[in-house]
Amino acid sequence: MTLYDQIHLAWQALTGHRLRSGLMLLAMAIGVAAVVFLTALGEGARRFVVGEFTALGTHLVMVLPGRNETTGGHPPLLGETPRDLTLEDALALERHPAIRRVAPLNVGSAPASHGRREREVTVIGTTAEFLAVRRLGLTQGRNLPAAAREAHPVALIGEGIRQELFAAGERALGGWLRLGDRRFRVIGVLRSEGYSIGLDIAELVLIPVASAQQLFDTSSLFRILVEARSREDVKGASDAVRRIIRERHEGEDDITVITQDAVVSTFDDILSVLTYMVGGVAAISLVVAGILVMNVMLVAVSQRTAEIGLLKALGASPAHIQRLFLTEAVLLSLMGAAIGLVVGYGAVVALRTLYPILSASPPPWALGAATGVALATGIGFGVLPARKAARLDPVQALARR
Amino acid sequence: MIRLQDISRHFVIGDNTVHALDRVSLHITAGEYVAVMGPSGSGKSTLLNVIGLLDRPDDGRYLLDGEDTTTMDEVRLAGFRRRHIGFVFQSFHLVPRLSAAANVELPMVLAGIPAEQRRRRTTAALEAVGLTDRAGHRPEQLSGGQRQRVAVARATIMGPAVLLADEPTGNLDTASGMEVMALLETLNGDGLTLILVTHDASLGGRARRMVKLLDGRVESDERLSTGPESTP
Ligand SMILES: Nc1ncnc2c1ncn2[C@@H]1O[C@H](COP(=O)(O)OP(=O)(O)O)[C@@H](O)[C@H]1O
Ligand SMILES: [Mg+2]
After folding, report:
1. Are residues A1 and B109, on separate chains, in Cβ contact within 8 Å?
2. Which of A196, A228, B89, B168 fits a disulfide with A237 by CB distance 3.0 to 4.6 angstroms?
3. 3-state secondary structure of B21
4. Domain range annotation of chain A
5. How far apart are CA A276 and CA A39, in angstroms?
6. pLDDT at A281
7. Ligand 1 pocket at CB < 6 A
8. Per-residue pLDDT band at A111 (split at 50, 70, 90)
9. What ipTM does this complex have?
10. Contact indicator for B176, B143 with CB cutoff of 8 Å
11. What residues form DSSP beta bridges with B211?
C-alpha cells in the first residue's frame, strides 16, 4: 500500500463520517487555538513590559557617584565621602566607541513662576542628549543647545507645568519662566508619554546642566546616563565607564555603575515562564482532545468491524489496518491543528485590533509546540484504536453485520 | 493444490465445545468446481474460512501449493490471501462509502499496484461483470445482483487461484442469483478453482464435485456426472 493510497483511503473514511470527523476536528482545533491565543497573550504581556523598560533605555548604563561593593545597588550612605562626578567626567565618556550618548544629570527642586503663578518643580539639568537617551519628544519648540559647558538661560517644560503656569491660550514657547532667582526662556514643551515608567514627564523642567549647576550652586553631578551603542555593547560601555572614570579619579574606583539590562531580563524571564505556563495549560486541552479522538476512533473501529474483516479477507495485514486507522488519526490532528492555527491567529489579530498596546503575537515555539502536541496526541491516542482494529479476528469481524 | 489433513476447529462457548470442523481431510486440485453442502451449523463457513486462511485450524495440517500454512505468520497469510484467494460473501461486504470501481480496486491498493495499472484492470473487470456504466455508483445505488457482481470482480481482480463463495446467492432473487452463478462458472471455466458453499441442492448439483458436511465432518465427497454443460 503506497503512502498516497493510505492517505486517500483514510481521507475517504473521514469524509464518509462527517459528523464524527467534524467533532474531532473541533476538539483539536479548539485545543490548538487555545495554545496559540493564550501564548500570544502571554507573549504580548511580556513584550509590553519589556517594551516599557526598553523605552527607558535597555542600553542604558547609569553612573552614580560613590562606590558600592555589590554592583547594581544603591551607593553607600555611610563611609568616606566619594569624589564627585563632574561634567568633565561625563564629557570624557562621550568618545568611547561602545557609547552612543551621554546625558549628565543634575536634579533639584526650585520654585518656578510665570507672572503671578508659582509652584515648586523638579528641575533636571542636562544636555540635548537627554531626550534621546530617555526616548522623549517635544510637542513644540526645540531641544536644549548642544554645547554642554555653556549656561544658556533656556528651559524645556512638561505639559503639566505649561498648563499650570501659563494661562489658557497663552503661548508658552518664548515665554519667561523664573526658577529661583534666575529667568529662563521656554524653548520647548515635552511630549507626555502615555506609558512611561518612573518619570512624570509632564511635571518636569529641563535646563542646561551648566545652568543647573549655577542654580543649585554645585559643581558635581547627580548621575550620568550613558547609552550604549547596542544591547551587546552594554558590557563594554560599563567597563569603559569604570576605566575612564578611574583614570580621571586618580585610580580610585569610586563610582557605581548600574545597567538596566539585568532588571529587564528578570522581567523577561518571569513573563516567558508565564507564557510557557499558559501554553502548558492550553496544551492540556489538546490532550483532552486526544482522549476524545481515541474515544471516537474506538467507536469507529467497532462500527467498521465488518469493513476491517473485509480488508483482511482481501489480504490486508495487521500492519495495513493499523496504518490506515493511524493515518485517520494523524489526518484529523493535522487538520485540527491547521484550523486551530487559523482560528487562534484570527483571535490574536482581533485582540491586536482591540488592544494594540499589547502587540499580542504567539511566539514561534508555541506554533510548533501546538502542532506537535496535536500530532503527538493524535498518534498517541490513535495507536490504541488502530491496534485494536489490527488485532480483530477477521472471521468474527465479517460475521458481524 | 489445496490439501487439508485432519483439520479440526472447535469453539468453546461456556462449558460447551462446538466442533465446527472435526478431522476434515480434503484434497482439491486446481481448476475444480466444488460445492460444499450441509445443514446450517455443519461447518461450511468455517471450512471456507480455513481454506481462505482467514481462520486457523486448531489441529491438522493445511498445505496450500505444497506449503504448510499452519506455521505461517499473519503477514505471510495476508500476502497469500491477497495474491491467491478471492472471497465472495453472502452479504456482499462492499465498503459503503466507496464507488464500485474503488471497491474493485481495494485489493490492488493493498498490494501496492500503481494507480494507472489499477484503473486499467478495474475497467476491464467491471466490463467483464457487465457493470461498466455503474463504475462510479456507490453500493447503495446498486441492486443486490449488481453488488454481488462488483464483489466477484473485486475477488478476482488479483488473479487468484481459488475463489471461495459462501452462499453468494443467499441474498439474491433467483434471476440475479443465476447471473452471479453464471459469472462464477465462467470464471471456473477459465481455470479458476471454485469452491461454493450453498444449501440449495439445485445450485450444488451444478458443480462437478460435492462435499457434504454434517456436524463438522465430511459426510460424503462425490464426483457429479452432471457438469457445467447446464450453464447457458
Ligand atoms: N466464532 C465462533 N464462535 C463460536 N462458535 C462458532 C464460531 N464460528 C462458528 N461457530 C460454530 O461452529 C459451527 C459451524 O459454524 P459455521 O461454519 O458457520 O456453519 P455453517 O456455515 O455450516 O452454517 C456452528 O455451530 C457455529 O455456531
Ligand atoms: Mg455459513
Report:
1. yes
2. A228
3. strand
4. 3-52+266-399, 83-253
5. 7
6. 83
7. A 395-396; B 11, 13, 18, 20, 38, 40-46
8. very high
9. 0.92
10. yes
11. B36, B221
